[in-house]
Amino acid sequence: MPMRMRLSRDERRLRLLLAATEVFGEKGYRKTEVSEIVHRAGVTKPMLYRHFPGGKAEIYMEVLDDHLQSMMRRLGEAMGKAEAPLDALRRGIDAYLRFAEENPEAFHLLAETSAELDPGIVDRLKEVRSTIADGLADTIGVVLKEADLSPEGAPVYAHVLLGGVESVVAWWLETKFLERSAVVTYLLTLLWRGFEGLPRGGSRIRFELSRLIDLSPVAEAGS
User: Fold this and answer.
1) Residues of the chain above pLDDT 90, percent
2) Is 201 left (phi over 0), alpha (psi -120 to 50) or beta?
3) What separation in angstroms does the CA of 223 have from each of 67, 79, 91, 93, 113?
4) Contact call for residues 85 and 143 (beta carbons, < 8 A)
5) CA neighbor of 41 nearest in space, from 56, 23, 26
6) Using one digit for the tens of pLDDT, what is the confidence trace for 87-123?
7) Are residues 155 and 200 located together in one domain of the fold?
8) CB < 8 Å & 24+ apart, contacts of 82-86
9) How many separate domains does the chain show?
């Protein structure tokens, strides 16, 4: 009989996190049982509580933080390549859709709004959205200033964009009705049409938007 290798502490913890990511992604927080996580990880229930004394809620928070760090890293890398604030928004929206497309379970967990979630998890999800919205508001504020417009409404636009994108992405992942690049264009167009209704700078914004929409698919694929 072959000898069974003993897993290290870090390996057991990683197994638990991977298993929890899968189960939470499939069933959501409320319907997931600790027994399902440990069964998929191939460890015992006491082992889970040894690594995560807070049980299901603690390991869920750990999974959320892993997803958040991954998503924020992608957004930062994508927007960091931009030469102008408007292009940064385009790249940021595209990176968000890419992340959701490649990690649908992670997207659904980060976009979770169920009233059945534990208070600590709800607070953490609010922090996640606030972090993303603050970054968007900073970028939108710069765009407004460049168009000779007041940046005062930037946080409003940021939260509208974030909420709208979450709703659109949930629909898009289910239907795949359009190509990702088309969804990005429609979302950016919606935002900029709103900017065009402001008192000044419409012509500048219209020019920038038309330039971005004219970007070739080849250029987008290589971005």
Assistant:
1) 16
2) left
3) 22, 10, 8, 13, 32
4) yes
5) 23
6) 888 898 899 999 999 988 888 887 776 556 777 777 8
7) yes
8) 84/208, 85/139, 85/140, 85/142, 85/143, 85/146, 86/143, 86/205, 86/208, 86/209, 86/212
9) 2
Cβ atoms of residues 74 and 98 within 8 Å = yes
Look at residues 14, 32, 53 and tell me which one is the last residue of a structural domain: 53
Residues 85 and 136: beta-carbon distance below 8 Å: no
Q: What distances in angstroms separate CA 16 from CA 24, 66, 117, 154, one per listed residue? A: 12, 13, 21, 41
Judge if 29 and 77 occupy the same domain: no
Q: What is the pLDDT of residue 27?
A: 84
Residues 45, 130, single domain; the answer is no
What band does 36 get if pLDDT is binned at 50, 70 and 90?
very high
Give the integer Cα–Cα distance in Å for 156 and 178.
27
Q: What is the CATH number of the domain that holds 86?
A: 1.10.357.10
Residue 149 region, left (φ>0) first, then alpha (ψ -120 to 50), else beta?
Answer: beta
Radius of gyration of the chain from its Cα atoms, rounded to whole angstroms: 21
Q: Is the Cβ–Cβ distance between 169 and 96 less than 8 Å?
A: yes
Residues 86 and 131 in one domain: yes
* Residue linked to tokens 């239907």: 175
Q: Which domain holds residue 5?
A: 1-53
Q: What proportions of the chain, in percent to the nearest 5, are helix, strand and coil?
A: 80, 0, 20
pLDDT digits (tens, 9 = 90+) for 173-214: 999 889 999 999 888 887 777 666 555 544 555 555 565 556
